[in-house]
TrEMBL record:
The modification 4-aspartylphosphate is found at D54. This is Two component, sigma54 specific, transcriptional regulator, Fis family. It comes from Anaeromyxobacter dehalogenans (strain ATCC BAA-258 / DSM 21875 / 2CP-1). It comes from the Bacteria. Pfam families: AAA_lid_14, HTH_8, Response_reg, Sigma54_activat. Gene3D superfamilies: 1.10.8.60, 3.40.50.2300, Homeodomain-like, P-loop containing nucleotide triphosphate hydrolases. GO terms for molecular function: ATP binding; sequence-specific DNA binding. Signal peptide: none annotated. GO terms for biological process: phosphorelay signal transduction system; regulation of DNA-templated transcription. PROSITE patterns: RESPONSE_REGULATORY, SIGMA54_INTERACT_1, SIGMA54_INTERACT_2, SIGMA54_INTERACT_3, SIGMA54_INTERACT_4. Keywords: ATP-binding, DNA-binding, Nucleotide-binding, Phosphoprotein, Transcription, Transcription regulation, Two-component regulatory system.
Length: 458
């Protein structure tokens, strides 16, 4: 975590040696060169977190090097060093964009103090970027909407495991919100102020995944025109989320296993290892046990990932959460139609949404509400504004008998007929007490009321 890789630039061999010793003693990984020209070559080949350079050197001096870094890598932090009588040059460097400066001769503690200040500044900058990203995405841990028992169990698990660095495997169907679980674990952990880096293992071409995860040096392969920091290094100190881990090629599974065990990365084409401190959360929509049995996934990697497993239930197993999810997404998408204050769902639209089976889970529901908001002609969202797949579910059969008629193979009609019969039976058993009926049916009270209205049950 922090500014580990430091490039030292000084024409005096004794200074380069002294700084290298100080940096190594305090946990940094330094590399030292004698000129500004050498520094630029080194920066083109490898990624560095910070440059510590003398101001006055033969050839390209510290100011020239700083200006070139500002042009090619403006986020790279630079600290300049100046001997007695070169303070004007140091001040000019600060105006040009250097973070700080050291006066020669210096004590080891002075070097460490300046570097620690630089690390704190970098930490605050990363936190600021993280907060801006989450605000723009409208994300918060509370976005995990649901009070059903399956979701309460997921929440309990998240709170238990968030404080530990343990590797987590989140399993669930597509659209159930696996990344939200990963983000919630990160936000509730001591790493919340540090990066959350997500990578979809199934969306990156197999030949590029290694370089995306672990980085590469310049010239490592044909298109490597400059060094690149891998996502594992970007996540240093924070959380690395590996989505669709089941799509990872077998060859890279070995390297991922080594990374999880050793907590070190080796950029493609490099000879050096870099130690990183990351928490790994993996997610998959496929059955990894079946993939192991079929030889598509390494068994040792599976057990290394599944230290703690979180199963995210599909929406059909927590239908009582649908009303709350509808209200949540409706509130979330109101900003899309500021000219329509008071957006609300019509009774028919809400009934259709409650009746749908949601094979695409929460993501499908989210998109359905967003579509309705975008297409609405007025403040009341109608059934006609919903996707055809949702409207088809809501189309009533001509009568209860038809839905269960012999020869009908419609699961949707049969489901509606079964729900109606169960609701009538529950109300009859409880003498019309809707609260007790909801408990028997394992539905929320609100969901039962909507279904009673939808089916015309008295």
């Amino acid at each position: 975590m922090g500014l580990r890789n430091v490039l030292v630039v000084d024409d005096e061999a004794s200074i380069r040696h002294l700084l290298s010793v100080i940096l190594v003693d305090h946990g940094y990984d330094p590399r030292a060169v004698a000129t500004g020209e050498e520094a630029l070559k080194e920066l083109a080949v490898r990624e560095y977190d910070l440059v510590l350079t003398d101001v006055r050197m033969p050839g390209m001096g510290g100011l020239g090097l700083l200006r070139e870094i500002q042009r090619t890598a403006p986020e790279l932090m630079v600290i300049v060093m100046s001997a007695y009588g070169a303070h004007d040059a140091a001040i000019e460097a600060m105006k040009t964009g250097a973070y700080d400066y050291l006066s020669k001769p210096f004590k080891p503690d002075e070097v460490v103090l300046v570097l620690r200040k630089a690390e704190e500044r970098e930490r605050l900058a990363r936190e600021n970027r993280r907060l801006r990203t989450e605000l723009s995405a409208g994300y918060s841990p509370e976005h995990m909407v649901g009070t059903s028992e399956p979701m309460r169990e997921v929440s309990r698990q998240i709170r238990k495991i968030a404080q530990q660095k343990t590797t987590v495997l989140v399993q669930g169907e597509s659209g159930t919100g696996k990344e939200l679980v990963a983000r919630a674990i990160h936000q509730l952990s001591p790493r919340a102020a540090l990066p959350f880096v997500a990578v979809n293992c199934g969306a990156i071409p197999p030949e590029l995944i290694e370089s995306e995860l672990f980085g590469h040096v310049k010239g490592a392969f044909t298109d490597a025109i400059r060094a690149k920091k891998g996502l594992a290094v970007e996540a240093d100190g924070g959380t690395l989320f590996l989505d669709e881990i089941g799509e990872l090629p077998l060859g890279l599974q070995v390297k991922l296993l080594r990374f999880l065990q050793e907590e070190e990365v080796r950029p493609v084409g490099d000879t050096r290892l870099r130690r990183v401190d990351v928490r790994v959360i993996a997610a998959t929509a496929v059955d990894l046990r079946a993939a192991v049995a079929a030889g598509r996934f390494r068994e040792d990697l599976y057990w290394r990932l599944d230290v703690v497993g979180v199963r995210l239930p599909p929406l059909r197993e927590r239908r009582e959460d649908v009303p709350a999810l509808l209200d949540h997404f409706l509130a979330r998408f109101r900003h899309l139609r500021p000219e329509l204050p008071g957006l609300a769902l019509s009774d028919e639209a809400r009934a259709a949404l409650l009746a749908h089976g949601w094979p695409g889970n929460v993501r499908e529901l989210e998109h359905a509400v967003e579509r309705a908001v975008v297409l609405a002609d007025g403040p009341v969202l109608r059934e006609e504004d919903l996707p055809e797949t949702v409207r088809a579910t809501a189309r009533p059969a001509t009568g209860p008998a038809e839905a269960g008629a012999e020869g009908s193979l419609s699961v949707k009609r049969a489901t509606r007929a079964l729900e109606e019969r169960l609701i009538r039976a529950a109300l009859e058993r409880t003498g019309g007490n809707r609260t007790r009926a909801a408990e028997l049916l394992e539905l929320s009270y609100g969901a039962l009321l909507y279904k009673i209205k939808e089916y015309g049950v008295g």
